[in-house]
């Protein structure tokens, strides 16, 4: 799926064009799958600035940092018009332990991500024609070919990625310039913030370092073409 958008000459590196097109094309039939990381704070502000009526969906695994939940509360106060949904997994942590054993994230992180992130997003996107993601090409090797708009066979939807041309420096310049709130864990060497058991501080080479450390895993599976079945 090819779309022509302004990639260079505006301050948002094409994000404004993409978001305005998405709002005009899909109106309220849009979901933004939001992690409330640094990119998320930029996208939330852009959605607000350009009046994009997307529902913001946070995949609440029940394993996130307290700082993440506290940030969500602050965002709701700053942008009261936003629709924020805390999407829940089908299994509680105790039910997952009973079915799959203790600390599944250590023994089979792919399965844990499937149960607590992928399946909940499948439910959130059921019947939704398009969803927004904060992917950037510079985040990692696996994301360097991401397009603004692409077909997403996994979720039978269109995936819209407005920030593909933004660097990590661009993200933080925008946060500073617009005085946006952000997760304080970023100030403690956490470039990417996920679940507590699977996230550690990192001063590594790419923005996905620190996630699932020591496992060789860098993606939860939301942005990969295949899924793990239970």
From TrEMBL:
It catalyses: [thioredoxin]-disulfide + sulfite + AMP + 2 H(+) = adenosine 5'-phosphosulfate + [thioredoxin]-dithiol. Its cofactor is [4Fe-4S] cluster. The active site is at residue 220. Keywords: Cytoplasm, Iron, Iron-sulfur, Metal-binding, Oxidoreductase. InterPro entries: PAPS/APS_Rdtase, PAPS_reduct_dom, Rossmann-like_a/b/a_fold. Binds 1 [4Fe-4S] cluster per subunit. Its EC number is 1.8.4.10. It comes from the Bacteria. GO terms for cellular component: cytoplasm. GO terms for biological process: hydrogen sulfide biosynthetic process; sulfate assimilation, phosphoadenylyl sulfate reduction by phosphoadenylyl-sulfate reductase (thioredoxin). CDD domains: PAPS_reductase. Residues 30-201 form the Phosphoadenosine phosphosulphate reductase domain. Signal peptide: none annotated. Transmembrane segments: none annotated. It is found in: Cytoplasm. [4Fe-4S] cluster binds at residues 112-113, 195, 198. Belongs to the PAPS reductase family. CysH subfamily. HAMAP family: CysH. Catalyzes the formation of sulfite from adenosine 5'-phosphosulfate (APS) using thioredoxin as an electron donor. This is Adenosine 5'-phosphosulfate reductase. It comes from Alkalicoccus luteus.
């Amino acid at each position: 799926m090819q779309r022509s958008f302004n990639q260079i000459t505006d301050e948002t590196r094409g994000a404004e064009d993409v978001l305005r097109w998405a709002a005009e094309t899909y109106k309220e039939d849009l979901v933004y799958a939001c992690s409330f990381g640094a990119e998320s704070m930029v996208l939330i502000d852009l959605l607000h600035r350009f009046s994009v009526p997307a529902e913001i969906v946070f995949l609440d695994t029940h394993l996130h940092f307290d700082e993440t939940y506290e940030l969500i509360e602050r965002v709701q106060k700053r942008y009261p018009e936003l629709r924020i949904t805390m999407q829940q997994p089908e299994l509680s942590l105790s039910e997952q332990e009973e079915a799959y054993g203790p600390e599944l994230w250590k023994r089979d992180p792919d399965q844990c991500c499937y149960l607590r992130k992928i399946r909940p997003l499948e439910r959130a996107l059921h019947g939704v024609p398009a969803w927004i993601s904060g992917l950037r090409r510079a985040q990692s090797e696996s994301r360097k070919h991401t397009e603004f708009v692409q077909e997403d066979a996994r979720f039978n939807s269109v995936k819209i990625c407005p920030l593909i041309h933004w660097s990590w420096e661009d993200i933080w310049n925008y946060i500073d310039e617009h005085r946006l709130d952000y997760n304080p864990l970023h100030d403690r060497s956490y470039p990417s913030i996920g679940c507590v058991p699977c996230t550690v501080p990192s001063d590594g080479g790419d923005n996905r370092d620190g996630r699932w450390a020591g496992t060789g895993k860098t993606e939860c599976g939301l942005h990969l073409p295949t899924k793990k079945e239970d």
